Predict the 3D structure of the following.
Amino acid sequence: MTELERKQDHAPIPVGWEYETAPESRDIVTLRERYGHFVGGEWLEPKEAYTTISPATEEPLAEVGQATEEEVQLAVQAARDAFENGWSALAGAERAKYLYRIARILQERAREFAVLESLNGGKPIRESRDVDVPLSAAHFFYYAGWADKLEYAFPNRKPKPLGVAGQIIPWNFPLLMLAWKVAPALAAGNTVVLKPAETTPLSALLFCDVLRQAELPAGVVNIVTGDGRAGAALVKSDVDKIAFTGSTEVGKAIKRELAGTGTKLTLELGGKAANVIFDDAALDQAVEGIVNGIYFNQGHVCCAGSRLLVQESIYEATVDKLKRRLQTLRVGDPLDKNTDVGAINSQAQLEKIQELVASGEEEGAEIYQPPCRLPEKGYWFVPTVFTNVAQSYRIAQEEIFGPVLSVLTFRTPDEAVEKANNTPYGLSAGVWTEKGSRILAMAQRLRAGVIWANTYNRFDPASPFGGYKESGFGREGGLHGLAPYLDFE
Ligand code: NAP
Ligand code: MG
């Protein structure tokens, strides 16, 4: 260790830094008291309703519909009609115009969407503003570009749309998951019925306004809200494809339900990604990558780097730097521009995190949480690191989906690969090393759909995303993301 590093090791921890709050104004968002389902271009008054809240304050935001089977049927019928009466016959270049319009309107209304996303989901405004919303617009721009080039994308295969796509999305990236689903489906010439997650319906409902502004033909995109029952009704309905993102448990149930039917299926499920730090990695950068990997979006990320694998020789230095970095994370009001870690999305998710963290302590792992004052109301969890973790512990095996990191060590690259792959999941992984050859060698051997090198949680619409094993099948993004929405002769 150089003299300089030693000095840095003993540098005082900046616990005294105080920031003024810098809250983003809520005024840009106008909420209605009650929302219906968006069916055939109209608002359908729902038979049943529930209240959606802000997880940061528990304050009620609006009433939204709990779709019944009949209401889901109406939405599927509207999508079928739109498919048969025009949309499927429209020239690709015309479909592209609508997608470009949607992308541009999302950009124009970016601040409104960012505020609403943080309000309803609890994620920091910095993330919804800089990640969720721009990436959502980018997705529409990207797939707009393919809409009139499908024959070139799949030469000599005569691509044809499937018909009606049923799409079920989770609460961790509500608008972005909508974009991942809707953009390729429309580019390929399908129509859509989408169900957002129970806890985060509002950005999808605001998106209906964008669809009207873009003058998308009625029924091409339909949105029904509600809990898992609405999702189950959509799976059972007369759709040609189901695209699902969410838990492995529900994914398996959907697969069972659709087995033997002609309905196509893609599943994007959970993960327990290894973030592997070799002893030649640029350690300060790696620590930033570790923090981004697990505390981004409160760890509510399917590809989160939730298992940290550190080479033994740098274990202490890494954990030391990591703990100090944790002390500088600001947890609190999602609408404050200084906030790094926002609210946990729901009471249920908070309980799940608490239960798994308790299991980690019981099984013998050592817990570290920085000193941190949490708001009184709402759902919160302090960024947490577990050391002394054995591979058999639940916190090393199960997806926590919260701001909780489990640290394990390895000695050789072989051991790193062995441990990284020792999971039922296979969605993503990270590798930190200065050696290019080692990056390539690791990428070959890690059984994960996405592998980041010297970075983490980077997304691009042109790059396919998806998993192996219990992380699901099918790809979203890139050309790969178009294929599941097409039939080939
Ligand atoms: P989930 O229940 O699988 O939710 C995903 C979506 O499926 C939601 O829209 C959900 O509605 C809906 N759904 C629930 N039951 C259904 C059913 N029987 N048939 C069809 N659709 C159904 O996941 P969750 O409850 O939100 O979260 C549970 C765990 O899933 C998390 O702790 C995490 O481990 C994992 N997860 C993974 C991802 C990912 O990106 N891969 C995303 C979110 C969660 P409701 O909103 O009403 O549940
Ligand atoms: Mg659920």
